[in-house]
Every structure is written in structure tokens, then in C-alpha cells.
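Internal tracking record. Fields below are filled automatically when a chain is submitted to the structure queue. Please do not edit lines marked as system-generated. If the sequence contains nonstandard residues, flag them in the REMARKS field before resubmitting.
Queue: standard
Priority: normal
Entity type: single polypeptide chain
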Amino acid sequence: MTDTLFGVTLPPRRGFSVPIQMVEQDGISAWLVEDHSVPVVSVAWAWPGGAFLDPPGREGVASIAAAMLSEGAGDLNNVAFADAARDAGIELSFGSGRDSFEGTFRALTDALPEAVRLTRLAMTRPRLDADALGRVRARAVQASRQSLETPAGLARRAFWEAGFPRFPAGRLSTPESLAAADEPGIRVCLAGQLQREGLLVAVSGAIDEAGLRALLSELFGPLPQGQATVTPPLPPLAAYGVTQRQKAAPQSTLVFGQDGLLPTDPDWEAFQTVLRILAGGGFQSRLMKSVREERGLTYGIGAGLDLLFGKAIVIGNVQTENAKVGEVWGLVRAAWAEMAANGPTEAEVVDAVAYLGGSLPLQFTDSRRTANLLLNLRQTGRPPEWLAGRPARLAALDRARVAAAAGRLLKPEGLVLAVAGEPQGL
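SYSTEM-GENERATED OUTPUT FOLLOWS
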């Protein structure tokens, strides 16, 4: 593709690729992007599970368990553990998603042995001190209560609860379930997650294959073998139409969406292009032009693909005055139907594909982002060749292909809405 800048023709863009090495040690596999330009190493890893494994009535225990891993380990209490990481310049964290339990650290190469030591200690000898647990639990309960006091929090919850009433994706934590998290339950959770089986690892930075083999052995070798968690595929989003939650507020929040597709679907890039044009292109998207620029009904509106349980859900949101909710919802559905029926223009496709292709290298600007992206590819079943072939797949898109994807995948009749506030006009 040739661009111009201030009337000057620029040379064609070069192709972009990332050399991914596949490394295995002691039954643990890792993807590696080696880069010695900066003396930094980032490691990201994950197990299937996360909130999926939360027992009924204890939703949120995995998120509290993840937070507790950096609240002291071995002979280091929470203050001493934090001081040790800070003194060595190590960024270490754990988290729990809807279908995964994850960890990550970033460290200078000189501090890599200390990063491995602290991370291994956190995973094998977490303290779970009562005072630290009380503080972490209280913080989680307070955040949950605050979320339930806002239209945005209520609408997001309603979207998932109504969309997946009999699936873990629709079973969200509450202040009560978070308050029920205790030390025995957290230890059960950690025992089911922190193991070698099912572990996915991604690494980026100043480390070679031999160094990575040693790191895998030292960091994850002490974990028990265990048994991998198998998460079920995401079922279709329930066709619930419109669901409402009442909340006294001057504005309502609308969360809307529909079924997406597998990341390995041949139409993945075409559908990303569709969503970029329809709802994800900032001020250039059709929804922003229709809802904000032409009518001034909101400050912002957008939608994108949310990946979970091996599938993508299209989810968008917008806030507007209560009296304008019906008008905004009508505009969203009209834009959806128009794109499904007629597709995008040639100019829209050119601009969207140029953005998607040009933004790809920006996702690899530092080791942490690279490691996290590699991990995401592994979690969604995409091989290294998928990433290598993405520029060519984007370059092959034309208006006909994108319009076909819009007609196949956009489902105006399947678009659902969760709204919280005091909406009018629905």
C-alpha cells in the first residue's frame, strides 16, 4: 500500500512479521519472541479455569485468590514481598478471568533470578495471612457494591446474566459471594489452578532458548502435575431482546451485542473490518456519526469483539439521556441492519484495512505487550502461522468479501439490549 504525506508519495509499507520460537521443557511449552534490544524479559502464563471454577455462592473466589498471591509468600509478609519486588524493579501480578487464571511479570535481565524466585514462592508457598485477606476481600466487596450503584455496572451485569443464564459466563460475583471467600476456599481454588498440566506460557525480551528452558524448569517445575481444566465452548447468546434494570439516574447505559465467531474463522479479519467501520472506528464509525455527530445524543458509542470460552461476542455500549434511549436504540438497530443488508463502501474498507494493518506492529512495541498477545493467541487456539499470515489476509480483503461477512455474521434480529437507568421509549 502506498501513502502520501503533505502531498509527498511515501514508499510502500513493508510486510510485518514476528519470529516466534516454540520451546518445550519438562512437558511445559512456551512461545518466545527473542529481542535483545532492551535488557528486559516479560513472561505471561495462564491456565484454563478462573471464574469458571468458582463454586456456586462463592463467585469471585478465584479473583480474590489471584490477588492474594502477591500479598506475601514463604517467610515474606505482604510488605516484605512488595518491597522485594519493588527494590528489584519487578512488576508481578496475578489475575482471574472468566475462563482463565493468569500470571505475568516483567523484569530487567539482571533481576530475572529474583523475579523467578518471588514468583515461584508466590505460587508454591502463598501465606494467605488473615489481615491481608480481610483487606483484599473488603476492597473487592466495596468495588462490587459500587458497581451495582451505577447504571453502567447494572447494564453490564444484566447483559451477561440474561445472555447466558445457564452458563458460567452469566454467573457473576456479588458482594455476598465475595464476602464468603475464606482461606480454605482460596486454597482449594489455588490447588486446582497452580499446576503444570494445562499451563500456557509466552515470553518476550532479552532471553534465548537455553535461558528460557532454564526459566521454565525453575519457575514452573516445582508445581504439581495436576489435571488440566477443560472449559466448555460458549453457547449461543440467549435471544432475550431487551432487559431493563431500574436505577435513578439522569442517564441510562445501554449494553448491546450479538453472537460473534471463532478467532480461527476464515472471516475473522473481514468481520473485524465490518465492526471497525460500523462501531469501532472512533469518530469515523457509522454509529458515532449517526448517534453523536448528527444528533448529539451521546458523548461516545462503540462496539468490539470480546473473547471468552473459545468464541467472540460482539458487545457495545452507549450512555444517553433517559428520554433519548428509544431513539438511540433505534439508530443502533438501523445501522446494524443497513450494514448487514448493503455492506460498507469501498472507501470505508480501504480505510479500515489500512488501520488494522498499520496498527499491527504497534501491538509489539514492548516485551510485556508482546508476551500478552502471544498468550492470547495460544489461549484462543491460534498457531504462530495465524499471526504470520494476518498481513496477507488483511491485504486480500475487498468490499465484496467484507460485505459478505457483514451479511453472514451481523444479525439485526439477534441483537440484544440490556439497559439500566430510567429509560424511555423502548
